[in-house]
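Notes to self after the Tuesday call (sharing in case useful).
The group wants a holo model before anyone commits to mutagenesis around the pocket. I volunteered. Ligand is heme C. Logging inputs and output together so the record is complete.
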Amino acid sequence: MKKKTINNWLAAIVLLAVFVLCSGAMSKFLRDEEVPYPADYRMWTHVKTGLIGPENPNFQTSGGYHHIYANTKAMQGYSSGTFPNGSMIVFDVLETKEQNGNTLEGSRKHVDVMVKDSIRFKATGGWGYEEFDKDSQVRILTQPLKMQCFACHSKRKDKDFIFSAFRK
Ligand code: HEC
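Result:
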C-alpha cells in the first residue's frame, strides 16, 4: 500500500474513534436522568397544602401534611396549562404532631420533585421524578418506583401530568 493510502486509512480510523467516543459521551449525557435537588424551594410559590389522614391507603408513605411549591416557570404552567422546560414542582411531605389541641408540622418525611425537560425525560411524558429522603438531599427512587410516579401522574396527561391547581 502507498504511504498516502495508509495515512488516509489512519486518518479515517482516528476520525471513527473520535466519533464513537463523542457519540458515547452524548448518549450518556442524554441518558442522564438525574433530577437536581430543588435548592431554596421553600422560597418558591406555595401552591397548596393538603392533609393525608390515617384512613388513606398511602398514609404510611405520604401521610401528614404536604405542601406543594412551584418555581417561576412552573407558575407559568399553572396559568397556561402547559409547563415549559425548567418547570420544577415540589411535594414536601411532613409528619403531623399534636400539641395543646393543635395539629402542627412535624419532621420532614421526604421531598418529591417533578422537573420538566421534554428531551431528557421524553420517556416519562417530559417530566423527571425523584424523591429525596427527609432533609438529607439523598435520592431514594429506583427506576421501577419512578415508573410508579409516572403511572399515576399519567392519569392527568390532559393536564400535562399535574394534579394540583393554583388558586389565587
Ligand atoms: C397513586 C397516585 C400517585 C402516585 C403514585 C404519585 N403521585 Fe404525585 N400526586 C398525586 C396527586 C393526587 C397529587 C396532588 C395532591 C394535591 O393536590 O394535594 C400529586 C402531586 C404531586 C406533585 C405536585 C404537582 C402535582 O401534580 O400536583 C409532585 C411534584 C408529585 N406529586 C411527585 C410525585 C413523585 C415524585 C411520585 C413518585 C415517588 C409521585 N408523585 C407519585 C398522585 C400520585
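Two things stood out.
The pocket of heme C is lined by residues 48, 50, 68, 89-91, 112-114, 129, 131, 141, 145, 148-149, 152-153, 162-164 (CB under 6 Å).
The CA atoms of residues 62 and 93 lie 6 Å apart.
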